[in-house]
Amino acid sequence: MTRSVISQRITSILDDIQRLNSALYAMNTTDIQRYPDNYEVLSTDAALRAETITCRLRHLLYASTNVKKSEYLTSAAAMQGIDIQQRGGIFEITLPCLLPKRRQSQSTEYLIDPLTAALEQYVKSHTVRRFRHCVVCFSHTYCRDLPERRVRDYDNLEIKQYLDAVGAWLLTDDGGLLCDVYHTTELGETDCTRMFIMDTPRFPTWLAERGVQLQDGPKGS
To answer: How many Cα atoms are found within 13 Å in the side-chain-facing hemisphere of 8?
Structure first.
């Protein structure tokens, strides 16, 4: 890649950063109580722009340096706070934000690539038994300090690509005969998404125990 092409891409990214700054300024001056719809549009625009900027910077890094994509994405997963734990045969994967809405490709790439890298690294460094008959629970956690109208319908969320990413490393098959998917919405300290993967017979006990642990209790469907 020539210096001229690199410069053009950097200039384009700088333009995106300026638009992001403008969106953030507008968010900061919008009365969220009087104009909640306007604030939602502005905040969505700002979030998508930020994720687009990140993805474009990644692509520039891969194309113009010797940094390996896999190595960078492993670092990105750690920086984002993607965490993978296994306790008592149950996997818990923590993602640092709520899942994006469907058809938002930039948002999906922003999180899916580091998640895939984190899963690959985990499988390489741990003994992992692939689940056959299992339940995957998506726990959508919303910050309790923000308006509850932010809570979205499950069918508006991008689920498939995250299930595919987990399935590639931890499941035998994510088809309906072998894998059940459960959703629950919770209030917490900050926005995040947790995925719990377990053998099917473990699910009823896990769900009951988790209901006791949570102050408000899970609300699933």
So the answer is: 5
Q: What phi-psi label fits residue 81: left (phi over 0), alpha (psi between -120 and 50 degrees) or beta?
A: left
Cα of first residue to Cα of last residue in the chain, in angstroms, is 50
Place of tokens 């965490």: 83
Amino acid at 101: K
pTM over 0.85: no
Are 84 and 118 in contact by the 8 Å Cβ rule? The answer is yes
Pairing between strand 134-143 and 192-199? antiparallel
CB-based burial of residue 215 (10 Å sphere; 0-12 exposed, 13-18 middle, 19+ buried)? exposed
Encode pLDDT of 55-108 as tens digits. 999 999 999 999 999 899 999 999 999 999 999 899 999 999 888 877 655 567
DSSP state of 69: H
Distances 161 to 13, 23, 37, 101, 168 between C-alpha atoms, Å: 27, 28, 28, 12, 11
pLDDT per position as a tens digit, 112-154: 999 999 999 999 999 999 999 999 999 999 988 877 878 888 8
Tokens 């299992």, located at residue: 134
Beta bridge partners of 220: 184
Helix (H, G, I), strand (E, B) or coil at 78: helix
